[in-house]
């Protein structure tokens, strides 16, 4: 899991894949705090289906890297008990679609216990969820359930988009006294980048990041679609359109201040995510920004999302997932340019 680096192995800066960065974040968290433990299906000897936990059991033992039965409700329920006893459990949900058996424990117990006990009990639980499509997998292995949890008061929900963010945000999530849903973009697991393992200036866990400045359109994405959004900005630049790209990073709470500041300049908003359109994160962002920035908007906010259908078989997922062309088309719509919805017979 620990890839060869382009720098000295003793250096704080290493070149890692996104999955390798998470592995290193887990390793550091386990080493720094004996109350941290990792639990999940096949995470020990196997190292997880994506090998994200590779080597951790050998280093820390089977009392801190725990192979569990195939029972997500049991994993989360056990984590609640451990948190009561002062531990900081990190739960791995093997695939996004497998989280539903643990849904009741997450939304009815994990999210509520701090308020239910009037602050006497904290739930410092990190729940890692590989999510999203793009890997050609079967049913229940490519879903995007993040909106369910962003809707639940008492939970923090985040998603990294780069190896550096994966490492830093995981460390912050484990250190949080509140429960965090940590959605990992599985199709980006093999993306490589430099990771500073001892960063000095660390962005707040719930702050958005402006990755590219622009003046014509604000494009908001998170997790797996952030690299696609950057590609869209480059393509739009060739057509004379300046796109500002914001990596949301946190889905609950949302850094609306950063989005609002951008839209007050650009006057246009496009939001994209892999999850289905109805009731998604994009709808909440579009609604809130319309309320806050109505007088600044030059066009209605646009959403580019998955479709309101069950996730399709692998052969059709490229049509389901937002891509450069679909997002660029939304940029054109917001700019009043010719697009897929234009009646070409009457278009100027």
Topology:
Blueprint (H helix, E strand, L loop, with lengths): L12 E5 H15 L3 E5 L15 H5 L4 E3 L4 H13 L3 E5 L10 H8 L2 H4 L9 E6 L14 H5 L5 E3 L4 H13 L4 E6 L6 E5 L12 E4 L4 E5 L4 H13 L4 E5 L2 E3 L3 H11 L2 E8 L4 H13 L8 E5 L10 H4 L3 H12 L13
Parallel strand pairs: 2-3, 2-4, 4-5, 5-7, 6-7, 10-11, 10-13, 13-14
Antiparallel strand pairs: 1-8, 6-12, 9-11
Helix pairs in contact: 1-7, 3-4, 8-12, 9-10
What does this entry look like structurally?
The structure is a single chain. This protein starts with 12 loop residues before the first strand and ends in a 13-residue tail after the last helix. It has helices at residues 18-32, 56-60, 72-84, 103-110, 113-116, 146-150, 163-175, 226-238, 256-266, 281-293, 317-320, 324-335; strands at 13-17, 36-40, 65-67, 88-92, 126-131, 156-158, 180-185, 192-196, 209-212, 217-221, 243-247, 250-252, 269-276, 302-306. With 348 residues, the chain is α/β, with parallel strands linked by helices. Mean pLDDT is 95; it is low at 1-10. Helix 9 (256-266) packs across helix 10. The protein is globular. It is 33% helix and 20% strand. Strand 10, helix 8 and strand 11 (243-247) form a beta-alpha-beta unit. A seven-stranded mixed beta sheet has the order 3-2-4-5-7-6-12, with helices on both faces. The chain has a five-stranded mixed beta sheet with strand order 9-11-10-13-14, with helices on both faces.
Q: Name the quaternary structure.
A: single chain
Helix fraction?
25-40%
- Secondary-structure class: alpha/beta
Total count of strands? 14
In order across it, which strands form the biggest sheet? Answer: 3-2-4-5-7-6-12
């Amino acid at each position: 899991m620990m890839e060869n680096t382009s720098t000295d192995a003793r250096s704080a800066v290493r070149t890692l894949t996104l999955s390798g960065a998470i592995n290193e974040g887990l390793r550091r968290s386990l080493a720094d705090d004996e109350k941290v433990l990792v639990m999940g299906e096949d995470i020990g000897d196997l190292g997880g289906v994506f090998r994200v936990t590779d080597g951790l059991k050998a280093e820390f033992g089977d009392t801190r890297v725990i192979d569990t039965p195939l029972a997500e409700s049991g994993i989360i329920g056990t984590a609640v008990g451990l948190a009561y006893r002062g531990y900081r459990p990190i739960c791995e949900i093997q695939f996004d679609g497998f989280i539903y058996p643990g849904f009741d424990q997450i939304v009815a117990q994990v999210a509520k216990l701090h308020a239910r006990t009037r602050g006497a009990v904290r739930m410092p639980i990190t729940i890692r969820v590989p999510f999203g499509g793009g890997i050609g997998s079967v049913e229940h292995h490519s879903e995007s359930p993040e909106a369910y949890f962003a809707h639940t008061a008492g939970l923090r929900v985040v998603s990294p988009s780069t190896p550096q963010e994966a490492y830093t945000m995981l460390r912050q999530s484990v250190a949080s006294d509140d429960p965090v849903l940590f959605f990992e973009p599985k199709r980006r697991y093999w993306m490589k980048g430099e990771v500073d393992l001892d960063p000095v200036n660390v962005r707040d866990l719930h702050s958005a990041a402006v990755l590219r400045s622009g003046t014509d359109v604000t494009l908001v994405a998170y997790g797996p679609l952030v690299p696609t959004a950057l590609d869209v900005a480059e393509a739009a630049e060739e057509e004379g359109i300046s796109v500002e790209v914001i990596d949301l990073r946190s889905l609950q709470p949302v850094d609306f201040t950063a989005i609002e500041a951008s839209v007050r300049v650009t006057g246009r908003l496009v939001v994209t995510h892999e999850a289905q359109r109805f009731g998604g994160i994009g709808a909440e962002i579009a609604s809130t920004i319309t309320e806050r920035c109505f007088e600044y908007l030059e066009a209605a906010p646009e959403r580019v999302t998955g479709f309101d259908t069950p996730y399709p078989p692998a052969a059709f997922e490229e049509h389901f997932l937002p891509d450069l062309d679909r997002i660029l088309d939304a940029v054109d719509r917001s700019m009043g340019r010719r697009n897929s919805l234009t009646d070409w017979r009457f278009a100027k």
